[in-house]
Amino acid sequence: MIKSIFWSVLAIAASLTTAFVLLAAIEGVCAVLHPAPPGVDLSDMEACKAHVANYPQWLLAVAVPAWGLTTFTSVWLATRLGAYRHFAHGVAIGMLLLAALILNLSMLPYPLWFKGANLVVLPLGIIMGIWLARIPSQPTPQLLKEPV
């Protein structure tokens, strides 16, 4: 029991750390490719909204798969390291990342196509991360079964 709890906590911590590192790297690359104008304070929400509204479309198109890959990697790691490779670890991380995405998309003026693409790509990353990390002989969780 203690060993299972340890592996579950380790899985969640490792996958959250992975998600934070990968997201920081993505945001760092975006900041280099599309820097804020000199003197703009990005801690001011209105200045941040104006900066995001001017993101180049190609940069947003690169961010979609990068965010999806981050979700996939974090969910896969949580499921793989979690006790008995139970899918609940991946679901927990996936739901946290999806909630963060929805909050981000609701606060900033991203284009509609970007919002829609992320709302498709992230759930796919969650499902694929869980599916590929499960024990091969383990039955597919009810969440992933095809309807009969």
Strand and helix layout:
Layout: H1 2-33, H2 45-53, H3 57-81, H4 87-107, H5 112-133
Structure description:
The chain is mainly alpha-helical and 148 residues long. It has one domain (2-136). The protein is built from five helices and no strands. The chain has helices at residues 2-33, 45-53, 57-81, 87-107, 112-133. It is elongated, with a radius of gyration of 17 Å.
Note the main sheet: none
Q: Strand tally, please? A: 0
Number of helical regions: 5
Oligomer: single chain
Q: Which structural category fits the helices and strands?
A: mainly alpha
The helix content is over 70%
Low-confidence stretches: none
| Radius of gyration from CA coordinates | 17 Å
Number of domains: 1
What is the residue-averaged pLDDT?
90
Shape: elongated
SSE pattern: HHHHH
Distance between the termini: 36 Å
